[in-house]
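dumping this here so i dont lose it
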């Protein structure tokens, strides 16, 4: 009888162990991938509306417009000069063109790249997280962390050399709420102008025609060896310097049929 009781107890432990292993595997198998998290973040911010929308806004001294219809796109920036005339920069499926008083300006390929990157950059940040599913984007789930007692997924983004643009060596980190799937913070390292690190906190969220927009507090740190994943801790410790505020004004959205 004693040996039978011992056998039963051992079997209970064995079965319990199997249950624990099964539950652990089930929980791990349900963990979302970086791609799934990004897909949900894009859906929460506007989803399919991005793909067929005309978006206008003002940023600093320029007026901007983007228009997407299916796979076709046109990104525009209009900047006045000191005489009141305007430069109009266009990035579309065919490349970059600059106009001055409706006349095409001849530019070297290197200057076309500089201006195109500048136009792309503004539209990219204003319409985040939409661009995170571009073909050249690589996404990696680093883990989870908390900022101001709120839990976030940490996702690292890198770019392929082919299709990733002139700044393909830049590295980004996005903090996406595990409940809201909103991009509340981001950080990036860049190589141009001797390099740098930036950390941004989103604020002033508003939704226009189903597309979510935010402004940013833009922070910097001089120690370029700092890992991007540490910048959220330094932000909470108030060890980052507020460099600027990035505000998008007069936003208008028209959905294209």
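and the seq i came up w/
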């Amino acid at each position: 009888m004693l040996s039978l009781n011992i056998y039963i107890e051992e079997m209970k432990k064995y079965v319990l162990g199997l249950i624990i292993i099964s539950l652990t595997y089930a929980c791990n198998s349900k963990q979302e991938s970086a791609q799934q998290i990004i897909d949900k973040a894009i859906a929460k911010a506007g989803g399919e509306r991005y793909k067929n929308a005309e978006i206008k806004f003002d940023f600093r001294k320029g007026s901007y417009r983007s228009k997407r219809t299916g796979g076709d796109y046109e990104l525009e920036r209009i900047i006045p000069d000191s005489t009141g005339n305007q430069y109009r920069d266009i990035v579309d499926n065919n490349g970059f063109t600059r106009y001055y008083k409706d006349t095409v300006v001849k530019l070297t390929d290197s200057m076309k790249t500089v201006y195109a990157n500048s136009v792309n950059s503004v539209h990219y940040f204003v319409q985040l997280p939409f661009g995170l599913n571009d073909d050249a984007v690589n996404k990696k789930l680093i883990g989870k962390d908390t900022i101001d007692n709120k839990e976030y997924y940490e996702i690292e983004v890198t770019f392929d050399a082919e299709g990733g643009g002139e700044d393909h060596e830049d590295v980004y980190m996005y903090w996406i709420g595990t409940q809201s799937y909103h991009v509340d913070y981001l950080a990036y390292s860049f190589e141009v102008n001797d390099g740098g690190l930036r950390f941004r906190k989103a604020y002033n969220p508003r939704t226009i025609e189903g597309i979510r927009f935010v402004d940013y507090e833009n922070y910097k740190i001089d120690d370029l060896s700092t890992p991007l994943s540490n910048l959220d801790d330094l932000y909470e410790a108030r060890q980052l310097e507020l460099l600027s505020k990035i505000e998008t004004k007069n936003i208008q959205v028209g959905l294209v049929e």
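The longest strand covers residues 196-208.
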